[in-house]
Amino acid sequence: MPSIPPELSGFERAIRLKTELLQRLVMSTPVGWPEELGSFITSLEASDLQDATALVVLLAHLRAEMRVLSAIYAAASEPDMATSRRPTDASDMTSSREILAWFREDLVTSAMKVAQGHMGTSTLVQHAATFINEHYAEPLTLEAVASAVGYSKRHLATCFRRETGRTVHRQLAHVRVCHALEQIRRGEKIEAVSLMVGYKSKKNFYHQFKKIVGVTPIAYRAGILKLGATR
């Protein structure tokens, strides 16, 4: 039996990663999509798929499939992945690193916007999410959010997790990282961004950022700068 060429083997693994990703996304709600997509891109970066054309095709198909999934959840008034900001044209890129940086910027940040619009159905959870969105830069705690919406910590925590699949603390981290992405794209220094979005601890900021986006703030900024140079 002939051996499989290394590049074909890498492409097959990439397809498998994409298939497994879509299976997880279908079984979850949009609140978990950003982390799943971040992990997927990181896995592709670690793979041996170097064929730029194959990579663009694979990720373009994923983007189209994500648009279908996002349309199921996003109301007409909410941002979806079909209208997300496109930083540049991925077809003009020649290296797998540039392509993956482009799709991380496009897919992960778009998924975060969709996730923000899918925050439960009860008034309690919606009010809590709104409060977090408006006060994310402050030193928020579960107790502070519960007090703001007029319920006990236990009741809020239970309802929030049941409806969104995410804890209040995790939601706060996502909102902060979403704003951090925007500030980094604007050229703000990472140390300043950490404080601007509510993190006094740089270590905690880096931990949450990498967990959600899949790379550190420094690596993300480097990717953005490289994308800017290709425009």
Summarize the structure.
The chain is mainly α. It contains 11 helices and no strands.
Describe this structure in words.
The protein has helices spanning 6-26, 33-46, 52-73, 96-116, 123-135, 142-149, 153-164, 168-185, 190-196, 202-213, 217-230. Helix 1 packs antiparallel against helix 2 (33-46) and helix 1 runs parallel beside helix 3 (52-73). The longest helix is centred in the first third of the chain and has 22 residues, at 52-73. It is mainly alpha-helical and 231 residues long. It folds into two domains: 6-116, no CATH class; 123-230, Orthogonal Bundle (Arc Repressor Mutant, subunit A), CATH 1.10.10. 70% of the residues lie in helices and 0% in strands. The chain is globular and about 55 Å long.
Poorly predicted residue ranges: 1-8, 75-80, 82-88
Mean pLDDT: 81
**CA-based gyration radius:** 19 Å
Largest sheet properties? none
Oligomerization category of the chains in this entry: single chain
What would the principal axes of the Cα set say about the shape? globular
End-to-end separation: 46 Å
- The percent range for strand residues is under 5%
Class of secondary structure makeup: mainly alpha
Number of self-contained structural domains = 2
Supply the key terms.
2 domains; Arc Repressor Mutant, subunit A; disordered N terminus; mainly alpha
Q: Which helices and strands, and how do they pair?
A:
Elements: H1 6-26, H2 33-46, H3 52-73, H4 96-116, H5 123-135, H6 142-149, H7 153-164, H8 168-185, H9 190-196, H10 202-213, H11 217-230
